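Support request, priority: normal
Reporter: lab tech (M.K.)
Component: structure prediction queue

Hi team, I submitted a job for Murein hydrolase activator EnvC family protein from Streptomyces cellulosae yesterday, and the status page still shows it as pending. I've pasted the exact input below so you can check whether something in the sequence is tripping the parser. The sequence length should be 200 residues. Please let me know if I need to resubmit or if it's stuck on your end.
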Amino acid sequence: MRAMRYAGGWGRTWPVLLLLLTAALLTCAARPGGDPLPLAPTATDTTVPAIGRTWPVGLRPAVLRGWEPPATTYGRGHRGVDLSAPPGTPVRAVAAGRVSFAGGVAGRGVVSVELAGTGEPPLRTTYEPVRTSVKKGQEVAAGEVIGTVEPTGSHCAATCVHWGLRRGETYLDPLSLLPRWLLHRGPSRLLPVIGVPLPG
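Reply from support: The job had stalled in the queue. We restarted it manually and it finished. Here are the results:
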């Protein structure tokens, strides 16, 4: 009787133990050298509010390359999105905030904006390559022009703006700032009016 009770107890417990063991193995996965893999930065941040009021460039620019979070802190990836934009295109702040940096980095113009009311540390957007028209410490409104697309310095085959988003040292998907209606807004289309003939 005792043996049956013991076997029955294990029958109910082994799935839980298997699950815990699997989680432990995945967490402690090792590289060939035996060192544990560094933890990857958070892929998504549910605290990112959809406070964007405009795209950085154009009305609905083509996304030439999307956000590809690195598997490790220093791993390969694409820490932002590339938006198609010809040289001279106005670049706008997607949301209200304060300019935390405006200047050159490795020969490219860069603007960073700390977004107001987004917690500690605050969310920070970056735009490059941009010929800046704002200064560090300046308050900007959503949609305000912060510069124009530079003709050189882009890492895209065609001219583009690299748009990034960070909270502290963690890179996030900048598209998560845009509300759904703005992400999917396409060109305006006129619908026919019933009873009114089409122009000849």
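The chain is about 15% helix and 25% strand. The helical segments are 2-27, 180-183. Let us know if anything else looks off. Ticket resolved.
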